[in-house]
Design a protein that fits this description.
The chain has 10 helices and 10 strands. It is an alpha/beta fold. It has 2 domains: about 200 residues, 2-enoyl-CoA Hydratase, Chain A, domain 1 (Alpha-Beta Complex), CATH 3.90.226; about 50 residues. The strands form 2 sheets. Strands 1-2-3-5-7-10 form a 6-stranded mixed β-sheet, sandwiched between helices. Strands 4-6-8-9 form a 4-stranded mixed β-sheet.
């Protein structure tokens, strides 16, 4: 992005780009923060030198507290008065991330995350968290409908019912146990370990990564022929032929793929 960024610091480490979110004092998100993140995601997807993105917080303690509730109140007031609510210009939850583009995006959650911030993390492909972190969905205690569409595919109805109705933040350890996050690290190790993982992803064939992501997110809505088309597209790629030829020539040792 050419314009000066207000809410994110951008760093690059080879094929990995790191976005560090910072909106003190509480790291609330809103339409402006979401629009800025959308621009970063689009720029990342269009940059052939970048393969993986990491979204984290600039300062430890709070990744994203939640959506700024002050931006929701005017809509509640209008509806309560029987008037049309003001147009919603964006929630801050990263519409570009929700479209699940071809490149992996990892969320490194260093501290607390809740509400719309927690929903944003669920739309990332991987979620790593500091051991002192927590995650929750406080919408129902605030009088709102909980984000069931984001939560249920990750944890299912049983855990989803508890997380959404009670709205309480749970510890990083429990979040890992029920599948909300993939891995836990000490706070100071979180970003280095996340970048290390990102670089492993960056070594993989970009086309097959993109096609596999599409199959994971869209496969349930695709026909058998469309799914077969993904496999044919991968099989016909230069990367596939080169890698398989080298694998066969080396004696087909699985360790060579690790």
């Amino acid at each position: 992005m050419a314009e000066k960024l207000k809410y994110h610091q951008v760093e690059k480490d080879g094929p990995v780009v790191i976005w560090k979110f910072d909106n003190p004092p509480k790291n609330l998100i809103n339409a402006e923060t979401g629009a800025e993140l959308d621009g970063l995601v689009t720029a990342f997807e269009n940059d052939p030198s970048l393969r993986v993105a990491v979204l984290t917080n600039q300062r430890p303690g709070v990744f994203i507290q939640h959506v700024d509730v002050a931006t929701i109140l005017p809509r509640a007031e209008a509806l309560r008065a029987g008037k049309p609510p003001p147009a919603q210009t964006g929630s801050g939850m990263g519409q570009a991330i929700q479209r699940h583009g071809p490149k992996p995006i990892i969320c490194a959650i260093n501290g607390l995350v809740a509400g719309g911030g927690a929903v944003l993390t669920l739309h990332c492909d991987f979620r790593f968290m500091s051991r002192d972190g927590s995650i929750g969905f406080p919408e129902v205690p605030l009088g709102l409908v909980g984000p069931w569409r984001a939560v249920l595919p990750i944890v299912g109805i049983a855990y989803g019912m508890e997380l959404l109705l009670l709205g309480k933040n749970i510890s990083a350890e429990r979040a890992e146990r029920i599948g909300l996050v993939h891995r836990l690290y000490e706070s100071k190790e979180l970003l280095p370990e996340t970048i290390k993982f990102a670089k492993e992803l960056a070594k993989l064939p970009s086309l097959t990564v993109a096609l596999t992501k599409k199959a994971i997110y869209d496969g349930a809505k695709m026909s058998d022929e469309e799914i077969a088309g993904l496999s044919r597209q991968a099989l016909g790629s230069e990367d596939c032929y080169r890698i398989m030829s080298r694998y066969v020539a080396g004696g087909q040792n699985l360790d060579d793929l690790q």
